[in-house]
histidine kinase (Paenibacillus farraposensis), 457 residues
Amino acid sequence: MKWNKVYLKLSLTMFSLFLVILVLLSMVINQLFSNFYTKKAHEEANELALHLSVMLRDRIYAVETMAEFSEASIYLVNGQGQFLDMSASTKQKKIQAWPNVWENAQLLQGKQIEKEFTAGDQLYLLHGIPVHSSKNPVIKGIYVVSSLEHMIESIRSVRYLIGLAGFGTLLLALGCIFILAKKLSAPLVEMEAATRNIAKGELEVRLPVRSHDEVGSLSSAINDLAMELKRYRDTRSEFFANVSHELRTPVTYLKGYANVLTHGLVDHEEEKQQYLHIIADEAHRLTVIINDLFELAKMEEGKMAFHLESVDVRRAVEKSVNKVRIKAEQKGLQLVSALETIPRCFVDPVRLEQVLLNLLDNAIRYTTKGTIKLTLQQENGFGVILISDSGSGIPANELPYIFERFYRVEKSRSREFGGTGLGLAIAQKLVQLQGGTIEVESAMGQGTVFRLSFPFV
Ligand code: ADP
């Protein structure tokens, strides 16, 4: 049996505590009953002795009868300290058998005597009371000796009952404590098994949440952990599949066209130039993907340094707009801006520009005709930048996924435009790491609006 089990430790602790309480309580009860019985016996004997001493003053003969009824023995003492009227031989014997018990001298001095003594293996109570009787001048004192055996018997039976009740309670407590401890520790055992399974990679494990206390919330925390790990594992595998796919495509082109060229399978110079262009494009594409991936990895590991400072967002937006103006005009698009003067925001100017250029690039890329509009305004302590276009729009069912790595709405079309599917993932990460938010709204055929917000300084 393994002793380092929670339920055993819990049971043992609770049981020991219970045992200590029970023993203390039994001791107190025992003491209370002992005191009660002893006091009662003393009171009864004392009362009897007093009663007899009063009776002795007038009717000496009734005393013997009285003593017989009360199961006590009486002994009379004269002025010389000798025992009187001890005709019954048993009494005489007792007087001789208990030589050190009598306190005649004290009694004759008028003192009351009360003491317990043991003779044989019995306990007795002795009361001595001085007597002053005009009718019986010979009698100077009376001893009443009563056996305390019946009192001891009563205490013994009380002790027996306490012991019996204690033993019963102890057994009951042991059972209850054991069941309770097992019940309390059962979820912990389940959790231990579940976490070990999670560590082995079984991420479908779910624990039942049976209560709303700390144990219940620990179970649901373990469930959340398993779910989060599963999501992480799934997205990681998906991510690696995407990475290898994205890298394989340009590499296949590179290999293919390089082969054609090395084997001299081109008919004329123009064709050769065309292939060389494709090779250069694909090589560039590979570089972009690798750089993007590297940037994302750095951000996710928290290794990308941000230099947050107080920035005039209006100027930053104007700078980005100027950078993409030619590109937009070349495509025949109108680029307009409505920029309010707002308080300075706490951002990294280089990263803010990177995000703006990325969103503006996308807007130009996915818009064939119309306008691209930039708006800057303030809302509830935040600087808000809106980048709206009149492009193709994004289908509502795809909208929730566009910030995922490698997610592209129209796979082939985006590739055609030179997209990697990493731009928005990077933009979102950059915005979040600067304490801002990025949201998107889109209507098919009408256009898309990206909304950035950053806190003021
Ligand atoms: P990509 O490099 O392919 O543009 P992004 O992460 O920047 O990757 O964008 C993800 C996808 O979201 C794109 O493939 C595109 O389909 C869609 N998208 C992004 N911006 C716009 C926009 N302004 N209008 C329409 N679709 C967009």
User: Anything to note?
Assistant: The longest strand covers residues 122-130.
